[in-house]
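so my prof wants the structure for this chain in the tokens format not the other one, which i didnt know existed until like an hour ago. anyway here's the sequence
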Amino acid sequence: MTADVHINAVEHRFNTFTALHRVDLEIAAGEFIVLLGPSGCGKTTLLSIIGGFYTPSEGQVLIGGKDMTHVGPKDRPTTTMFQDYALFPHMTLCDNVAFGLRMRGMAKAARTQKATEMLNMVGLKDKAGRKPHELSGGQRQRVALARALAVEPDVLLLDEPLGALDLKLRRQMQDELKAIQRRVGTTFVHVTHDQEEAMAIADRIVVMNHGRIEHCGTPEEVYLTPKTLFSANFMGEMNRIPMAAAGQSPLGQLDVPPQEGLLCLRPENIGLEGTFSLGLARLEDASFFGAHHRCHFTPVNAPDLTLVVHLPQGAHPEPGAEVELFGRNPVILPQPTPETTA
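here's what i got, hopefully its the right format
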């Protein structure tokens, strides 16, 4: 089963601290949404409100068209999967997966069959009789996912479930998590502070900051055309070049749309070729990152400015060399004010 989720003007306060400021968000049935942001941005608070662990100070939560604002967690069509997995160490994997079904009164034979089906879906059917301590971290994560999905929630809430895994295993589980979500069709709402993880699994990313939504869009939209400077900076490195209304900048006159603000360029959008010139720059240093060289250039016309540039393998000049740099795919954003600076 699956359901849509509507968050309408939700505000939440902890005593005098406002954790969420009138948040509006619509999540389609069967969508994989990722709430992304730094610690303290409100993403976990919003997840907890969807799950019923907090009642919002103001606003409304609708799940499948029904008002769930004041409904407790056990009576909502949601299940939450936490980072620590919370598996019962004395139970077999099969019994762990079947536990929620047992609490709902399902007969033993039926719940064992269902648990076996779910373990098979996550590739652990052959380990159904084992205990959690006999598994790797990735396997325990799969068991927790199977248990969460066994009760057939309309919405599955995931609170940084991959945070305890090492990088290689985390990437593997990202692929598996997305594949399982597509197979079951359940609405997933996933919290993380990992930008790469968000882009790997999300249909849409909700970038949050100080209890507000900065940008909501596909991974491509959020990364390539950020709506705010915070979103641009949080989703990876960004070169920022001040621009005057006539196209003037510290680098000189640039052939970009004349607009006052900050000209923002991702490191991979600066190189030895492009659609407009950034002028001469001197290579200060370069580090090899496998797929690219991460280079620091000092523009000749702006010695106080440093440009971070990603150049392909074998394509960077020697340190100290001066080359003409070019840009492409520019984004021009307003200059930050004291109220908007993160």
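also thought this was worth mentioning. Helices lie at 43-51, 93-103, 108-121, 137-150, 167-184, 195-201, 219-224, 229-234.
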